[in-house]
Amino acid sequence: MINRKETKKVMIGDVGVGGNEPVRVQSMTNTDTRDIEETVTQIKRLEKVGCEIARVAVPDMKAAEAIAEIKKQIKIPLVADIHFSADLALEAIRQGVDKIRINPGNVKPIERIKEVVIACKEKKIPIRVGVNAGSLEEDILQQYGNVATAKGMVQSALRHITILEELGFEDILISLKASDIERTIEAYKELSEKVDYPLHVGVTEAGTKFRGTVMSSIGIGALLYAGIGDTIRVSLTDDPVEEIPVAWEILSALDLRHRKPTVTSCPTCGRTEIDLLKLTKEVEALVENFPEKLHIAVMGCIVNGPGEAKEADIAVIGGKGVGLICRKGEIIKKVDEKDLLTEFKKELDKELKSDLSKNLK
Amino acid sequence: MINRKETKKVMIGDVGVGGNEPVRVQSMTNTDTRDIEETVTQIKRLEKVGCEIARVAVPDMKAAEAIAEIKKQIKIPLVADIHFSADLALEAIRQGVDKIRINPGNVKPIERIKEVVIACKEKKIPIRVGVNAGSLEEDILQQYGNVATAKGMVQSALRHITILEELGFEDILISLKASDIERTIEAYKELSEKVDYPLHVGVTEAGTKFRGTVMSSIGIGALLYAGIGDTIRVSLTDDPVEEIPVAWEILSALDLRHRKPTVTSCPTCGRTEIDLLKLTKEVEALVENFPEKLHIAVMGCIVNGPGEAKEADIAVIGGKGVGLICRKGEIIKKVDEKDLLTEFKKELDKELKSDLSKNLK
Which pLDDT tens digit goes with each residue over A277-305? Predict the structure, then answer.
């Protein structure tokens, strides 16, 4: 069992992050925020696959002014991503945004960030301090030989946090993103020892779908495994909707949260005597939309099959043209390969207390 | 920089594993080993994508007898995966196999494993002890409340190792696979403190391609990040050829080994003003087959673009219809979006000292 570090809880709209809340899944739109229809369409697609918090870029006043209308049409909380401008932040807050991502040290003069903080306090809106290795302050870079180090990233975050704390504001989340795994892990680990604010975890600029999935799985995975991370963002150079299944798979792989049953299946080898890949894909498709935790094992032979079956709620072990169906390690049926999916479906129906026949392809 | 634990070096054919050798990429065929043509075809496909060691299941004598002919037709070392049978191991050795995977404690009576060890010594063939959580010995399971724990897995491995060591054999590799990440990490970390033999690392029965990629990235990634692992196997319920790019991507993500240039690219957002996904995919396709280490960044806007460009060998930063091309952080060209790929290709050509035009789609 992963021992999650306890952090302060903050509310983003009606979604709690930190404290005893589950690790939240979030993403960011890549539409033009001023195009309300396109942005809402993308957020609805994100909601459908399990995104719990959506962020939009707010590069100008017209984007800020779109927020109220976008919020009206979506269900999940909305975050405004703002650089440098107090005016944009204040407008986003007026529009009813649920969180602001802004780095207070970048807002000049300091009086302007005070206005933002007062507005956030009034509406109970949290602020995320979002440090990126790619945009570290010049003076911090110089301290570390003009290189963006993990220590420099932590120092930058603490500087922004101090500004907020000195203004009596503690409704804070923090992220520390780098485009490589080592700095990402090092920076979050160091910051996690220094503050109790909830952490938004991710590897930034992770690349296209395949590379980004591997990068994010390693980086976010290592941090979650160490108990660090209250909300996660998988960054992919792709449709942001693609990010959500990766985020959920990371949470499921670490047994932190499950959005559907998990399927353990063996890689098959020269010993496998049934079409395991086909069977596994069919089983996966079958349970894809069942929002329940269930451990299913699909195994190709008797070497590791019985052991894995023992640990699964329900399992199939393939043999030569036949399959054994097990429940909690007990063999309950022996069936012909051709009937395996149908028979397995019946057992899954019992397990999930629902009728899977409509899902059966 | 990851500080790899130093292990003893063993040779699998002409491929060194452990010591100062790079982390090796391996896989296992899922063909019928007795079908020489099909098995060779699959191994050749594995070789082509970067597999460095191939394993075949040897469930019967006919499979063992196929080994010499398979070896004749392939370039990479071949491993025989054997359960329980000294006869199959001895035949595989006679056939010229490069490594045996067998658990000595499972070969009865003990005299039979002596014969195998003598044959391995004579031919300088290493043995991998491969413990799987799904097939732990009964007496060990019972010590831990009938549950396959990480400690039980380590105990099982040490028992097998002791048998080999008592026979004066130390040409050993070890794996400790479980189908969940926590046990996998815990078991390898504990064993790594106890022995200096090279470790073969993987998460077993990790699932189909998507889940297996995430599971393996987290599990193998966490171990490699901790300096543990001399050879890796990504297990997917799929064509084993699919496992190799995942393995290489894990190594590349951790900057341990590179088989092609790495492309850092931003997730795009409402600020992005060029078609970044298209450009990134084109750049990736361009460098896919260049076996050189090179860090390329493809960034969508000026917020993090310049910082990332500074850390990359060569970078593009997109603006409104234009792009900046940078080399080691210095802007060297400003070009129209329509000419960006062509111009970038020219710069890549210089960097890679080769003609990329043939790769340009």
Answer: 888 888 888 888 787 788 999 888 777 77
- Is the bond preceding B109 in cis, omega lying within 30 degrees of 0? yes
Query: What is the rounded CA–CA span in Å between residue B266 and residue B297?
Result: 8
Residues 206-245, chain A, touching B (beta carbon < 8 A): 206-208, 210-215, 217-218, 221-222, 225, 235-238, 240, 243, 245
Q: How would you class A256 by CB atoms within 10 Å of its CB: exposed for 0-12, middle for 13-18, buried for 19 or more? A: middle
Residue A23: strand pairing partners: none
pLDDT at A287: 86
* Residue A286, token pair as written in the block: 């079958």
Chain B partners of A296 at a C-beta cutoff of 8 Å? Answer: none
* Burial profile B232-260: b = 16 or more Cβ within 10 angstroms, e = fewer: bbbbbbbebbbbbbbbbbbbbbbebbebb
- Look at residue A354 in the predicted model and tell me its pLDDT: 58
Helix count (H) and strand count (E) of chain B?
13, 15
Interface of B with A in 90-119 (CB under 8 A): none
Helix axis angle, B150-166 relative to B181-194, nearest 10°? Answer: 40
CA dihedral angle for residue B238, residue B242, residue B246, residue B248, rounded to 10 degrees: 140
Residue B30, chain A, CB below 8 Å: the answer is yes
- Per-residue exposure over B64-94, b if at least 16 CB sit within 10 Å of its own CB, e if not: bbbbbebbeebebbbbbbbbebbbbbbbbbe
pLDDT confidence bin for A360, thresholds 50/70/90: very low
pTM above threshold 0.80? yes
Which chain A residues contact residue B240 at CB under 8 A?
A: 267
SS3 content of chain B, % helix, strand, coil (to 5): 45, 20, 35
For the ranges A12-21, A139-148, B268-277, B324-333, the lowest mean pLDDT is seen at B268-277
Task: State residue A357's pLDDT score.
Answer: 45
pLDDT confidence of residue B14: 97
Secondary element (H or E) of residue B327: strand B322-327
Q: Domains in chain A and their CATH numbers?
A: 10-253 (3.20.20.20), 262-360 (3.30.413.10)
Q: How far is CA B263 from the centre of its chain?
A: 20
User: Under an 8 A CB cutoff, do B205 and A265 touch?
Assistant: yes
**Cα separation, A268 vs B49, whole angstroms:** 20
How far from the centroid of its chain's Cα atoms is residue A22's Cα?
A: 11
Q: Is the Cα torsion angle B108, B112, B113, B114 positive or negative in sign?
A: positive
Write the pLDDT tens digit of every residue in A303-331.
Answer: 777 777 888 899 988 878 788 899 988 88
B29: left (phi over 0), alpha (psi -120 to 50) or beta: beta
Q: How many CA atoms lie within 13 A of B188 on its CB side?
A: 33
DSSP H helical ranges for chain B = 36-49, 61-65, 67-73, 86-94, 110-123, 138-143, 150-166, 181-194, 209-225, 243-253, 276-287, 305-311, 340-352
Q: Are B181 and A254 inside 8 Å of each other by CB?
A: yes
Query: Counting beta carbons within 10 angstroms of the beta carbon of residue A343, is it exposed (0 to 12), middle (13 to 18) or buried (19 or more)?
Result: middle
Contact A122, A174 (CB under 8 A): no
Rounded to a whole number, what is the distance in Å from the CA of A297 to chain B's nearest CA?
A: 9
- ipTM reported for the complex, 2 dp: 0.92
- The ranges of chain B with pLDDT < 50 are 357-361
In a 3-state reduction of DSSP, which class is residue A296? strand
B237–A205 C-beta distance less than 8 A? no
Comparing CB atoms, the residue among A32, A217, A306 nearest residue B214 is A217
